[in-house]
Amino acid sequence: MTRYKARFLSLLAALLLMLTSFGPAAHSSYAQGASRTFPETGKTVSGSFLQYWTAHGGLAQQGYPISDSMPEVSDTNGKTYVVQYFERAVFEAHPENVAPNDVLLSLLGVFRYKQKYPNGAPGPLPNAEANSHLFVETGKHAGGLFLTYWQTHGALAQQGFPISEEFTEVSDLNGKPYKVQYFERAVFELHPENPAPYNVLLSQLGRFRYNAKYPGGPKPGNTPAPPQNTPVPPSDACSGIPGSQNTTITPMCGPQGTDFAFEGRGFQPGEDVGIYVTEPSQAVFGAPFQETADSAGTVSGIGLQSDRTFDPGIWAVTMEGTTTHNKAIGYFKITGPGPGATPNPGDTSCGNVPASQNMQILPSNCAQVGTQFIFNGRGFQPGESIGVYVTAPDQSVFGAPFQTTANSSGGTNLVTFSTQPNFPLGVWAITMEGTTSHSKAIGYFKLIP
Questions:
Q1: From the centroid of its chain, how far is CA 436?
Q2: Strand order across the beta sheet in which 426-434 lies
């Protein structure tokens, strides 16, 4: 068997985002436990769906829920799953899989593309930029800002493979033309009028699909636009922090371990306010709660407790009114390591590692950081290409920049994963997914000190 080596040399450290509140409103938000009701649409998200929503971009990536959870026959394989519609995605429950693969996304990009362009999209142009990559699984290219977005926002697991080249499409939401590209689970829109990372936005495929399948159902509301965050390269001193908008942050900078407090202004009294944070890499994380503006239109008592896993650089916190869509945006800086930083968990045991599915792991499923793991997946169609992605202990997903191939027995070439001393401790997962069969092999392994 040939050996396919892949080193994930630049894997981002897991982010432990702990948004807390010092006021009574946040305590009631957390008291909801494993459920959260979104007043913008009146829908409740619970259990594994809420966990997935929170860990995979929240409002910015998935949008608001626009349906209750319900059984639905899959248009992909004819099987019945419990699903829930969001503005930009449809979540499918797969209790037969171990987390995080117990929630999967429907192939909304495929459905939408076939519906709109049964004879192919008009005027497709393969991306020819220097970083352009040909995906042999579909014969389509991705490059430039679209490829960068794909690589930094879940890759294969979240977006799927490209199924079209780039072309111009008139938006069904506002009637304006945008350069777009269709992927299996998403449609990317280019917005050069926005600063990075908001110059690439996702079409509201969940909304389109829901309206098409359930025309008698309730109509979803509008999704707030992302914040206009202009990042500034970090430096060692408390300098280079952009001016905040309707926001006071105390302190404005500090080392890892600093507790930052936020106050936002300019909202409608009594309206609910969503909160999300943008880290220096431009990854966006939604808070699992909302706050309510007081009689002066102010939200206060929100804090972020940083620790050693928080990357140094410029961060942003965005508060957005769910009724007015007014924004308060604040910038702050983490300057580097600090004595108050919380250490990584010291779990030295090899317990609590879920059983792998169709996956062999060598040398074992538990080893010290710095170990090189070797994986061999099974259960694929002979000859099909297989995508690979890794899930960190905080459920962040990182796609590998390659595909491997199933042999005549449906097994994969060997894939190696070289861990580094700064990798987060805990249980990791590696997932291999066939591009034709969509069969999965999932391996779980644990890093200990």
A1: 24
A2: 366-368, 440-448, 426-434, 385-391, 397-405
Within 32-134, residue ranges assigned H as helices are 47-55, 58-62, 108-116
433 vs 441: CA distance, rounded Å: 7
Handedness of CA 174, 193, 224, 392 (dihedral sign): positive
Per-residue pLDDT, 348: 59
Give the Å distances, CA to CA, from 204 to 66, 90, 150, 173, 437.
Answer: 11, 11, 17, 9, 26
For residue 405, give the 3-state DSSP assignment. strand
State residue 234's pLDDT score. Answer: 35
Question: Phi/psi class of residue 123: alpha, beta or left (left: φ > 0; alpha: ψ in -120 to 50)?
Answer: left
Residue 270 CB contacts under 8 Å (≥ 6 apart), including other chains: 292, 293, 295
Residues of the chain with pLDDT under 50: 1-33, 218-236, 339-346
Helix (H) or strand (E) run with residue 28 in it: helix 24-30
Instruction: Identify which of 240, 270, 209 has the alpha carbon closest to the alpha carbon of residue 63.
Output: 209
Contact 329, 248 (CB under 8 A): no
Instruction: Check if the beta carbon of residue 195 is closer than 8 Å to that of residue 228.
Output: yes
DSSP one-letter code for 186: -
**So what's the pLDDT on residue 237?**
55
Cα(125)–Cα(143) distance, integer angstroms: 11
Which tokens sit at 142?
């991705």
Task: For residue 250, give the 3-state DSSP assignment.
Answer: strand
Q: Distance (Å, rounded) from C-alpha 433 to C-alpha 239? A: 45
In tens, the pLDDT along 22-52 reads 332 332 222 233 578 888 788 888 888 888 8
CA distance 317 to 260: 10
| pLDDT recorded at residue 223 | 34
Q: How many CB atoms lie within 10 A of CB 252?
A: 14
Question: What DSSP state is assigned to residue 364?
Answer: -
Dihedral angle sign, alpha carbons of residues 45, 49, 51, 54: negative
Give the CA-trace dihedral at 67, 222, 285, 97, to 10 degrees: 20
- Measuring CA to CA, how many Å separate 117 from each of 61, 137, 167, 175? 25, 20, 12, 18
Please choose, from the candidates 144, 324, 294, 121, the residue with its C-alpha nearest in 3D space to the C-alpha of residue 221: 324
Measure the CA–CA gap between 400 and 124, rounded to whole angstroms: 26
What angle, 0 to 180 degrees and rounded to 10, lies between the N-to-C axes of helices 205-213 and 108-116?
70
How many DSSP H helices and E strands does the chain contain?
7, 30
Residue that the structure tokens 């202009």 belong to? 230
Distance in angstroms (rounded) separating the CA atoms of residues 91 and 137: 24
Length of the chain: 449
What is the spatial distance between Cα 242 and Cα 318, in angstroms, rounded to a whole number?
Answer: 13
